[in-house]
Structure to design on (462 residues):
């Protein structure tokens, strides 16, 4: 039985378990008229039965699906000739790759060595046996779960409490997965970054002004420099983000004020969704727009004014990135402004304030925590953007404050360093993790500042 069919079978068993549990709960009290004698609703008994049928079976199913290939591969390797088992890891990996291609049907068995054909046949046999055994075990677990839970159903069984306790454990498990995933990401970045700083001094990375991470693979290789001064990357990131926020913050904030305080309902109904559509446009589309439209337009304007504008410039990337971030600022600011209690507006009007004075002196001050939080989140989004910068600003690590020149950012260099076949013992590749650590610390700091501002001013206005 294939995994997809087995999964559908588990779902079908769970649905059947729900119906059986619900029917059993009604039966133990003597019918529909005496449902009030049950501690919980009949549906809770059905859900509890479905959980104890489907959840253990699903755990066994997912565990085997994750481990199946590794287990079967080890058994197949154990049946290979001694000479094949003694191959180096790289050669053995190639042999296993040929084996998997034969099993998947990508390569004809006649095109590989005889021992690989035998191993592929053994692999298929073991997989078929494993699928049959898994199907029998999973279905048996589901049936046992149904019978065991139905036998436990009685009028005083706290089915709702048990059901909610299981759901609580599942929710905690999902939260734990998110937390441990984040912790794993952070630890992996920190570990690799410390490996980098054991090779390259921290002072050179933080204060150096020359970024050229090309390392020599051979002793006679030319063109390698191995300079890891990241100041040009930090400067380029800040320059492009600053330009983007100059565009996004005023337009987004003023748009939010108009939509929340001035726009008629019909205008708001259509304009707000259209504005938020910008957030759903893929970043590669923005990058293409910057390369084909904004960049050439800036070059033409620069020639008319006598200014030298590079084909790839920080200004083009910043302008387009600002357009992309407008919905972040606008939507969050609009939500905060509309959340301000109407009583504050009415009190200002009662004191003789005009609409504009009420917005400036009362509404914006009350909505300030949310607006500042939205702006800081938009800054984090700008710092982490990659595709627009790659296409519109280039890859040159220039230390400049001129927005008309080509620059690069931290995220772009991370992508550049990790593209292609890389050796993770090289400072060139490890530099990507050091840059990632800096990026993580910056975004973490921005989030902490946003939380601090929100909590401080929220307490003031509540």
């Amino acid at each position: 039985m294939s995994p997809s069919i087995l999964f559908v079978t588990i779902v079908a068993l769970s649905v059947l378990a729900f119906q059986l549990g619900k029917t059993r709960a009604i039966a133990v009290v003597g019918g529909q008229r005496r449902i009030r004698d049950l501690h919980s609703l009949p549906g809770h008994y059905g859900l509890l039965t479905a959980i104890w049928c489907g959840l253990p079976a699903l755990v066994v199913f997912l565990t085997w699906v994750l481990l199946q290939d590794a287990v079967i591969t080890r058994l197949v390797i154990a049946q290979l000739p001694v000479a094949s088992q003694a191959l180096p890891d790289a050669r053995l990996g190639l042999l296993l790759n040929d084996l998997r291609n034969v099993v998947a049907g990508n390569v004809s068995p006649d095109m590989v060595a005889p021992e690989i054909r035998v191993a592929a046949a053994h692999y298929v046999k073991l997989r078929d046996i494993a699928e049959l055994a898994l199907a029998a075990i999973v279905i048996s677990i589901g049936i046992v779960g149904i019978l065991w839970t139905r036998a436990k159903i009685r009028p005083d069984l706290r089915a709702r409490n048990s059901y909610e306790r299981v759901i609580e454990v599942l929710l905690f498990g999902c939260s734990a997965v998110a937390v441990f995933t984040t912790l794993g990401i952070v630890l992996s970045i920190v570990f690799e970054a410390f490996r980098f700083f054991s090779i390259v001094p921290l002072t050179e990375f933080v204060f150096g002004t020359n970024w050229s991470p090309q390392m020599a693979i051979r002793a006679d290789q030319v063109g390698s420099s191995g300079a890891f001064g990241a100041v040009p990357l930090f400067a380029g990131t800040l320059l492009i983000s600053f330009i983007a926020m100059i565009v996004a913050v005023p337009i987004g904030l003023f748009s939010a004020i108009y939509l929340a305080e001035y726009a008629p309902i019909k205008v708001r109904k259509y304009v707000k969704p259209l504005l938020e559509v910008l957030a759903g446009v893929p970043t590669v589309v923005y990058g293409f727009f910057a390369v084909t439209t904004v960049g050439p337009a800036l070059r033409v304007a620069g020639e008319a004014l006598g200014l030298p504008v590079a084909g790839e410039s920080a200004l083009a990337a910043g302008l387009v990135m600002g357009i992309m971030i407008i919905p972040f600022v606008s939507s969050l600011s609009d939500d905060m402004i509309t959340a301000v209690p109407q009583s504050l507006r009415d009190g200002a009007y009662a004191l003789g304030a005009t609409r504009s004075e009420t917005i400036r002196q009362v509404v914006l001050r009350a909505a300030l925590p949310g607006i500042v939080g939205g702006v800081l989140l938009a800054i984090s989004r700008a710092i982490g953007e990659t595709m627009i910068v790659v296409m519109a600003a280039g890859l040159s690590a220039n230390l400049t404050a001129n927005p008309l020149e080509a620059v690069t950012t931290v995220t772009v260099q991370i992508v550049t360093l990790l593209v292609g076949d890389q050796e993770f013992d090289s400072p060139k590749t490890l530099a990507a993790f050091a840059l990632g650590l800096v990026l993580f610390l910056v975004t973490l700091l921005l989030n902490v500042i946003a939380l601090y501002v929100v909590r401080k001013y929220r307490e003031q206005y509540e």
In short: The first helix runs from residue 3 to 28. The chain has two domains: 3-157, 227-461.
